[in-house]
From TrEMBL:
Record family assignment: Belongs to the binding-protein-dependent transport system permease family.
Gene Ontology CC terms, in alphabetical order: plasma membrane
GO terms of biological process kind: transmembrane transport
ABC transmembrane type-1 domain span: 69-261
UniProt keyword Transmembrane present: yes
Name of the protein: ABC-type sugar transport system
Keywords in alphabetical order: Cell membrane, Membrane, Sugar transport, Transmembrane, Transmembrane helix, Transport
Length: 275
């Protein structure tokens, strides 16, 4: 018996089972989000008798999910811009410049990865409160970028190490300053690295709840995870349909990003794994 021929059906079967396990929660969430509260209680696993799209409208208006969606987009995009820019500069310095403490800096970045981020909630809260920056979206962007810097710097460092020194030397001979060499020569050659940093961090930043719930307490400054958590405390009581609709609102943007940039995501993850 050919073991290779026998293994193919087994692999396909396992992939089918894995696909079902991954997609079923999403399908269940979207189906439940268009059912009424009473119907969910009566028949939680059945198809909706009538589509109740008003759950999404109610979540966007009465529970301020619309403003929370905009806040999450601003925070995620802003955090990634800050993160990629700072990680690129630091990664370039570590990869290309022999400065005192280079190796110590590298080891420190590796050590920081092992620190549990949420163990720092209390000191970060007091620090931000003393600065008067609670309910400030820019402050939360800085925090998210700072917490994701160690792994991002290491990723960018590995990509900058692949940039030929001869190219940079030629740029300097032509009169480029250090920053122009970095900005116009080295950085464009590491687009895959920047994409990898964005891909690895986007979901974590988008779905972060702990710091957002502590630092963004006003309804108008909430991000989506905090707004979803607040749905259960509405004045009209807990409505399962509206709650699942709010989960759908929080999930749809990430699904759109995945389907639009699926090829880039695959390349970025593969490159990051190799690096």
């Amino acid at each position: 018996m050919n073991i290779k021929k026998l293994s193919k059906p087994v692999v396909y079967l396992l992939l089918i089972i894995w696909t079902i396990l991954v997609t079923y929660p999403l399908i269940y969430m979207f189906i439940t989000s268009v059912k009424s509260h009473g119907e969910i209680l009566r028949n939680p696993f059945g198809l909706p008798e009538q589509l109740k799209l008003s759950n999404y409208v109610t979540a966007l208006t009465d529970y301020a999910m619309g403003s929370a969606l905009l806040n999450s987009i601003m925070v995620t995009v802003g955090s990634l811009v800050i993160l990629i820019f700072v990680a690129a500069m630091a990664g370039y310095a570590v990869a290309k410049k022999a400065f005192p403490g280079n190796k110590i800096f590298f080891i420190t970045m590796v050590a920081f990865i092992a620190i549990p981020i949420h163990a720092l909630v209390v000191p970060v809260y007091y620090f931000i409160e003393n600065l008067g920056l609670t309910n400030n979206l820019f402050a939360i962007m800085i925090i998210y970028a700072a917490f994701h810097l160690p792994i991002s710097i290491l990723i960018m460092r590995s990509f900058f190490e692949t940039v030929p020194n001869a190219v940079e030397e030629a740029a300097r001979i032509d009169g480029c300053s250090e920053f122009k060499t970095f900005w116009y020569i080295a950085l464009p050659m590491t687009k895959v690295g920047m994409a990898t940093v964005a891909i690895i961090n986007v979901i974590t930043i988008w779905s972060e709840y702990m710091f957002a719930s502590v630092l963004l307490t006003r309804p108008e400054s909430r991000t989506l995870p905090v707004a979803v958590g607040a749905v259960s405390s509405g004045n009209s009581g807990f409505d399962h349909g509206i709650f699942f609709a709010s989960l759908g609102i929080a999930t749809i943007p990430m699904l759109i990003i995945y389907f639009v940039f699926s090829k880039q995501i695959t390349k970025g993850v593969a490159s990051g794994a190799v690096k």
